[in-house]
Amino acid sequence: MTDLNLRDGEAAVAPPAATDAGLVFIGRIQTPWTRREACPRQGSADGPLCAIEVFAPWVEALDGVAQYPTLEIFYWMSQARRDLVRQNPANDGRIRGTFSLRSPIRPNPIATYIVSLEGMEGGRLQVRGLDCLDGTPLLDIKPDRRCFAPSKVD
Amino acid sequence: MTDLNLRDGEAAVAPPAATDAGLVFIGRIQTPWTRREACPRQGSADGPLCAIEVFAPWVEALDGVAQYPTLEIFYWMSQARRDLVRQNPANDGRIRGTFSLRSPIRPNPIATYIVSLEGMEGGRLQVRGLDCLDGTPLLDIKPDRRCFAPSKVD
B74 and A102 in contact by Cβ < 8 A? Predict the structure, then answer.
């Protein structure tokens, strides 16, 4: 069956069911972008202020976060298809495997982004550096790994 | 009810069911460490060679990966509890919130690591820089974000 949403050279597979582990959405990201086409290709440190709202019962887990100037945010790209193994990115037209791209389209559409923390009050963080849709589900917040003793590649 | 596995000052919550989204395990990581206590606290660029085995139908998605000297590996820390909001890390004894730690214990125990790619054959990658248990489930492989045009914080 021809999939009309595939670009030239793209390949889809019939993936196994995504039931090996389950995720809980721990919050929601608020951004200025309400359509995928409007999202920037990549977040920027001088981009607009975005808000991260952490849901109960996880607000207590934010204790100590304010000491880090930069944080790693994990979120779920809920609108991305998950079955492509080969992609033809619109921006350069070089067909290649999904794992050689940072495209949202992947078997497990988890994104990570480094953001700068601009403010925090209760369960609400103000950050810069995101690129995602308004309403994107939040999966995790971690201190930027560069705040810890580095290894050579990390 | 007292949870005997909690250290002083730690707090657990009754988390919502982890059913908001599902993950598929796309491969398996082979390391020298078969017990959690034996794992290094952090991977190192001069650590032992580890193998990443990618399962069908995802092997085709590796096309183009070999051009990147460093990759970001996402894996699932299946043995970690998910209900702590406040932790008392053994290595420093400062009690703080889960989101101010990179501990495996978190609502969604997803780890990311930057590894150096040392070799690749078919669906099997040889890498250095991991710190996880032998048999750890693989979630994703992405090019290291530093290989792309940088923003200021990213």
Answer: no
Pairing between β-strand B84-87 and β-strand B96-97 as defined by DSSP bridges: antiparallel
Longest Cα separation, chain A? 53
Reading the block at residue A96, the tokens are: 């290649």
pLDDT at position A1: 56
Which of B58, B78, B108 is nearest residue A23 as measured by Cβ atoms?
B108
Using an 8 Å CB-CB cutoff, list chain B residues near A18: 21-24
- Cβ partners under 8 Å of residue B140, min gap 6: A99, A106, A107, A108, A110, B26, B73, B74
Q: What is the pLDDT of residue A83?
A: 97
pTM of the model: 0.92
pLDDT at A150 over 80: no
Instruction: Give residue-wise pLDDT tens across range A83-138.
Output: 999 999 887 889 999 999 999 999 999 999 999 999 999 999 999 999 899 999 99
The secondary element (H helix, E strand) that includes residue B137 is strand B136-143
Instruction: For residue A2, give Cα distances in angstroms to A8, A78, A86.
Output: 12, 24, 15
The conformation of residue A122, written as its DSSP 8-state character, comes to T
CB contact under 8 A, A85 and B60: yes
What is the predicted pLDDT for the residue at B1? Answer: 56
Interface contact B19, partner A, CB < 8 A: yes
Radius of gyration for the alpha carbons in chain B, expressed in angstroms and rounded = 17
Sheet containing strand A11-12, edge to edge, reads A11-12, A84-87, A96-97
- How far the first Cα of chain B sits from its last, in Å, is 44
Shortest distance between the Cα of A118 and any Cα of chain B, in A, equals 13
ipTM of the complex: 0.91
Asked if residues A136 and A31 have their Cβ atoms less than 8 Å apart, the reply is: yes
Nearest CA-CA distance, residue A122 and chain B, Å: 13
